Structures are given as C-alpha cells and as structure tokens.
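ok new one. same drill as before - structure tokens go in, u give me an amino acid for every spot. 299 of them this time. try not to just spam alanines like last time pls lmao
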C-alpha cells in the first residue's frame, strides 16, 4: 500500500507564505552584493565624432585588489532585430567542414563567385571596433582579453580548426577585422560579440584590468571612436567596474526575486480569503459529478 500526499489548502497556503520569505532574503542578499559591493564608473562618449579620439579622466572610488573589468554599454541598438540575429551560421563557426554553409548569412555570406566569408553574417560583420587605452601615472595599463568569453562558447560553439577567411573584404566594412592566423575559438572579442542580447540595452565585456588600484587613483582613458551608432540613434557608454562572485553590478536578479516573492504573498492572501469565506471540506463526496447530477446528465 503506497502513501499519496494531497495538497490540502492549509499546506498550499503555508507554502505560499514561506516562499516570499525565501525570495525576499535572496533579493536582499543579491541587491546588497550587486549594489553595495560593486563600484562603477560610467562615461558616455557617443557625442564624439566618428573616427576621432578623446581623453577621459576618472578616479578610482575604492581600493581594487585583483581584477576589475571594462565594459561597453550600448543603448537603443538594433541588435534585437530578427533579420540581424538570424544572420549567422552556427555550423560554420563550429567546424571547418561547413565553411560553405552561408545560406543563413545574407547579405554578408559570400563574395562574388560564391567565395565564402568566415565568419559570415551581419553579427560578425558588425564586430565592435572602438579601442580604449588606459593609463595610470602616465604608464599604460594592460587590459587582458583572456577569459572574457563563456567557456562553453569557446569549447563547443567556435571551432579550433576554423580560421577567419575573406572577412571584412567586401566594399563595405562593418566593424573590426580578425587575425586570420588565430582560430575563432581563441578570438574572444568575436565570441563575446556573437552572443547577441535579447534587449536593446546591453553590455559587452571589453577586457579585464588585472592589477591593484588604490583609492583616488587617477585613471586616464584614451577612447578611439570607430563604431558607428549614429545611423540608428544608438548610444555608447564605457563602464569601469569591480566585480563580485556573482559578477558585476546588476539589480535585475534582486528585483526579479522580490517580484516573485510578492506574487507568492499575494496568492497566499487570496487562498486564505477563499478558504475562510468559502471553505470546502477535504474529500467531500458531494462534489463528485455523479452526486451533483444523480440523473447522470450534466446540467
């Protein structure tokens, strides 16, 4: 004889009352870690003329030990357009055997005479090409490009035997060029860029500053503005940020958990009202269809 558990109203109400506490604690912790432990410096430079450079100075707001990160934040971009997102060939990115698989990459799939472009598609073609130089006390700071992409992307989505070929060789250049002697699995700028965002406002990790910075250290940034966002009304920001074990500054998870917890609390209150106002005995046979309609015919 097996035991079966029935979701009685009190058990459902109790569960709905416990969940808000769990989600609420999680939201507070995540908000504290992402907001109070992470420091950011932001600078918008979209007003800079295309092809020009500018120098920007900022001061480190806290003691940084270990690794900081520099991010590009773009606003109001068009990367969420369906035609843009679909313009790529995942098979071509994974294996050299699919070099000619460019049917989904229009209009940046092939050169004249069906010569394939590797990597093909509008996403790769529009690879971000602004450059940044960082200086402290008139000495250049190295920005590491290693481990800025997801390991799963490097290992499974970009082949070690796939090398750039005929890239940015057309009449219209879209963005940065790639080193044809380095496989796609090691070109992490491309891998980061190829992971398209779901929303028009997003960030892309540019690199990591792997050195210690003291409080009030002056950081000089030289920005070369090459990437054209003016044609579609886009904006760009450079974000210098520290990180925590859950990543950079991001309030989304905390807000999401708080929303779910509030919804659970609302449902618990609704269940309590229904249970008190119109209670229903558990296992009442009068609610069975043949007891409600003795004649055997539905109402």
């Amino acid at each position: 004889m097996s035991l079966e558990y029935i979701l009685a109203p009190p058990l459902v109400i109790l569960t709905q009352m416990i969940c808000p506490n769990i989600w609420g604690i999680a939201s507070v912790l995540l908000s504290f870690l992402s907001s109070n432990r992470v420091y950011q410096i932001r600078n918008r430079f979209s007003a800079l003329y295309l092809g020009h450079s500018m120098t920007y100075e900022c001061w480190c707001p806290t003691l940084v030990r270990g690794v900081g990160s520099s991010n590009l934040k773009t606003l109001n971009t068009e990367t969420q357009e369906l035609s843009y997102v679909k313009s790529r060939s995942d098979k071509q990115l994974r294996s050299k055997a699919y070099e000619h698989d460019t049917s989904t990459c229009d209009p940046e799939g092939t050169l004249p005479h069906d010569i394939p472009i590797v990597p093909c598609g509008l996403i790769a073609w529009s690879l971000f090409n602004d450059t940044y130089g960082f200086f402290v006390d008139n000495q250049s700071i190295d920005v590491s490009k290693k481990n800025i992409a997801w390991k799963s992307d490097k290992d499974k989505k970009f082949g070690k035997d796939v090398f750039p070929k005929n890239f940015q060789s057309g009449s219209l250049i879209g963005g940065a060029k790639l080193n044809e002697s380095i496989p796609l699995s090691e070109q992490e700028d491309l891998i980061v860029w190829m992971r398209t965002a779901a929303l028009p406002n997003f960030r892309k990790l540019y690199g990591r500053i792997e050195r210690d910075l003291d409080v009030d250290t002056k950081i000089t940034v030289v920005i070369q503005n090459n990437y054209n966002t003016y044609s579609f009304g886009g904006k760009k920001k450079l974000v210098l940020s520290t990180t925590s074990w859950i990543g950079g500054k991001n309030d989304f998870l905390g807000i999401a958990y708080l929303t779910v917890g509030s919804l659970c609390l609302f449902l618990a209150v609704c269940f309590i009202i229904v249970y008190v106002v119109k209670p229903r005995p558990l296992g009442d046979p009068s609610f069975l269809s043949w007891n409600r309609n003795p004649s055997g015919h539905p109402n």
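The mean pLDDT is 80. and btw Residues 6 and 282 are 10 Å apart (CA to CA).
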